[in-house]
Every structure is written in C-alpha cells, then in structure tokens.
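Two proteins follow. First one:
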Amino acid sequence: MKSAYAGDIADGDAVDTHFAVESKRPLRPYSTKPGLWFGLDLSDRTGSIQAVYWGREDEETRAVFESFGIGDVVRVQGAATIYRDQLQITVNAGGGLIEKTGQYEREDMVPTAQVDIAGLKSRLLDHIRSVKNPQIRTLLDSIFGDEPFLDMYAACPAAKSYHHGYVGGSYSTP
C-alpha cells in the first residue's frame, strides 16, 4: 500500500511515494541561471497532482527526464507546495528524486469501482444467458465462459478516464 495518495497530500507535506506518469512537459532552461527543469502530471487511484523537477547539472537533469516515460510508475521524493493557487510536488535535485520503479500495487494506481463487482459480474452473466440468438449466445459464452478471462475483464477499466475509468468499469457499462 502506498504511503500517501494524491488526494490526501497537503501543502507542506513531505512526499515519498509513487505515482503513474500521465504526462511530461519538455525540459526547459532556467530564465536567470544555468540549468534545466521540467514538469509532469502524476496520478494514482485518488486523483492527479502536478510535479516540477528543479535540476542542477544539465546532464543529470536530462538523465532523470529520460529515465521514465508516460505510463510508467515513478517514486517521487519532494515537498508539497502551492504555486499559483495549485498544489504541486516540488522535487529539488540533490534533495529529492524521481525514479522509475516496479515496486507498486496496481490497485494503488487505478481507481476502483465503489460498487459490488461480484454483483455486476452476476448481472452480466444473467444478460448473456438471456440472449435468444444461438450464434450470439455461443460467441458470448466462448468469451465470458472463460473464468480467467472474466477475472481479467473485471480488473480492467472500461476507459482511461471519464467513462467508467476504474477497475470494474467494464462491468458497469450498459
């Protein structure tokens, strides 16, 4: 289980947890001193939060930037701050980090339905059993009669966001 979720972070909190990378903005030079920085959008099952990485040496900052991509899960160490009335995680090179990780629970990254998934599964199977057309019924049985597939189907969101974008969302579609 994660130590902190995006939805629970407050201004002034020390942050040391992991998030999925939703987007990365390009490396940018500082306007008043040498060096590079970049911003990114992070998310977990509770929502999204912006982060900014303030680099020191150009090559070091480039290496951090190139070490992960959109869709990866990263460990983030930094501090929650308010910038332009928006909460963000500030990561300073040498005092914080952003690093790709494989050590996370999938359920921590993806929203989960706040409904009875077993009940939705039962409802889906009832609908399949009510199909009168034998060819369509055979097709549906061949797909949804496979219990391992049905378990994977239940674990998948129906979409990335908006329309049932949570674990169990595929069962929630009409």
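Second one, unrelated to the first:
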Amino acid sequence: MLPDSIETGRLKLRVARPEDADALFALFNNWQVIKWLSAPEWPPTLERTRAFIEKCAVEGPDFEEHRVILLEGAPVGGIGWRNRPAGPNQSEAGPNIGFWLGEAHWGQGIMSEGAEGLVAALFAASPIPAIHSGVIAGNEASLRIQEKLGFEITGRGTIFSNPLQREMPLISTRVTRAGFATRKGGRSAPLRGGTGDPDTAIQT
C-alpha cells in the first residue's frame, strides 16, 4: 500500500477526498484535457466527479487509487493507478497508471515530476516487475513524459473513447523496474515500435 501522501520536489500527490471534487471538476471540465482520456464521459459533471472519488474509496487502494496533484497546496491535476489483468492492451497483469493536468499548468514539468513520483512509489511499495500505461495517438506531450520514465512500447491496438464516442488507436507501454532505475535521470530514448505515424498520447 502506498503512503497517504507522496511528496516530490514541488508536488504532493495526495489521495483524493470528497472535498476535492469542486476543484478537480473545474480543472477537468475542459475538452483539451478530457479528449485524450478514454473513460470519462463528455461533458463531465460535478456529480460524476464526486461519484468517481467515492468509487475509488470504496474499492480501496488494492484495486484503484486516484490522487490529487497539489502544487503549493492547490490542486492542478490528477494521477492514479489501477490493477488490470493481462489482455489485448496490457501484456501482463499489474498496475496501470494514468494522469491528467489542468491546461493552465501545462509546459512546466509538473506531470513529469508527478508521474515519476508515483512510479517510484509503486516500485518501492511492492516487488512488482513492471508498471503499465498506454497512449492514444495525438498527444505528444504525454508520450514524452512516458519516454522520460523509461516506458517502452509493448503493443498496438484500439480502445473505445467515451469522450469521442469511437475507437481510437492505442499504444500499450510498459516500464520495468530495471528500466526505471536506469532511465538516465529522466532522459531515455524515444519510444519506438511498430509502424505508422509518430505515436503520441495520454494514458486512458
């Protein structure tokens, strides 16, 4: 189990609470943010935001956990993980991370720092061999975040996007414990694999 709060240089990743719903909704209610995610419905509502936080609390941290990213004490985005079985879009059972950031905070290295903190905490908390994620074609910034952390492509498929209401190309990714440890200070080689256009995206 992860600690209630994960602290990095500038950030605190704290377990989401019901009282966070208003601030998270204000950041999340933005097409430029939500269009890169597969699960949320568009448009989002405050009620669904509250329900999501409550669902994570009921299911518990052994299954799924969503954390608020705090910068100087204020919410700027969200990050989390869930345990998923092996399947078409994940090569083996294990934790799968996802993240999003309010548009006003893009381009400041916040998500790179937050994602690195979560990956490090997950590896420290258990002997898992790898952590999984995925990217939907089109979001170059999110792909670069995964590259910095040592993620590599493990496969290509599709996933249904609730915001877009259609299937979208999905690139499945994975970082091993060794790959994360040798990520060269956050500067790993670009993700490569398969064919087609450059692969860019955000986690589902």
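SUMMARY FIELD: Residues 5-181 form a domain with the Aminopeptidase fold (CATH 3.40.630.30). The chain has one domain: 5-181.
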